[in-house]
Structures are given as structure tokens and as C-alpha cells.
Amino acid sequence: MYRNLIFTFILFATFSIINAVPQFRKRETPFYRCAVGDLLTVKVSPDPLVSEQPATYTVSGTLSNDITAGKTILEIVYDEIDEISEQYLEEPFIQILTDSYKAGTPFNTTAKDVPTPKFPDSYFIGVMIADPTDDPKQPLDVYGCAFSVY
Fold first, then answer.
1. CATH number of the domain that 102 lies in?
2. Which of 68, 81, 130, 138 is most buried (CB neighbours < 10 A)?
3. Strand 41-45 and strand 123-132: pairing?
């Protein structure tokens, strides 16, 4: 009987230590497919993001459309979930891509020093690969998109 009690105590002590140490609780920010465009794979660093600290985004995927160097952009936006407004939490981050890729060819791009806003209790991140258009009703032709919700 004492052996079972000692074993149980050691087991609970081990679980308590594992749960107290943050490196054992690694969590990767999940990104999901948007309603438009192909799915992008997005990795952020630091993960999780830190409010008002710059981040690095690594975006990859295989798109159904060509990526044109000097024209196609990577856009990252932060917005509140609870409020629908025309104002984002931070100005969208836009990076013009410097490499061209044919449709169906895997691509990879990195955006460094992306500013992050002061995060509210709930927000989302949108990441897009798109070509700007001249149409004010549809300013972007979205080729790939992913989002994450906090």
C-alpha cells in the first residue's frame, strides 16, 4: 500500500514540475485557410507573438497563380474580432516580393521586423499573398491566405 502511495506522490510531483516549466509547453500558433486563395503555411517568431514587439513571419506554399517579382505582395494585418471597423489595429505590413515563381511551384519568403500592435483580449492575424489591382472595390487579387485567431 505504501508503495502505491509513494508512486502516486512521485507521479503527481513529476506532472507538477513538467507543467511549471514553460519549455515543455511549446505551442505553435495555428494558421487556417481563408475563404479566398490557396492555403499558406505561416510560422511566426517569437511564438506566441509579444505585444508591441517586432516579429518575423516565414510564409510558404504552392499557389495556383504566378508570383511576379516587384508586383506581388505579402500583406500582414492585425484586427479586433469583436469590432467590425475600417481601421486595423496597426497599418497593414506590406512587403513586395523579390522573387518570381510559376503557378504550382513551391515558394518561401520571410518578412523580418514586422511591427505588432498593442494586442486587445481577442484579435486575428491575416496573412496574404496578392497582386494589387486598380479596382477600388477589390484592391487585391488574393492568391494565398491564412489567418489565426487569439
1. 2.60.40.10
2. 130
3. unpaired
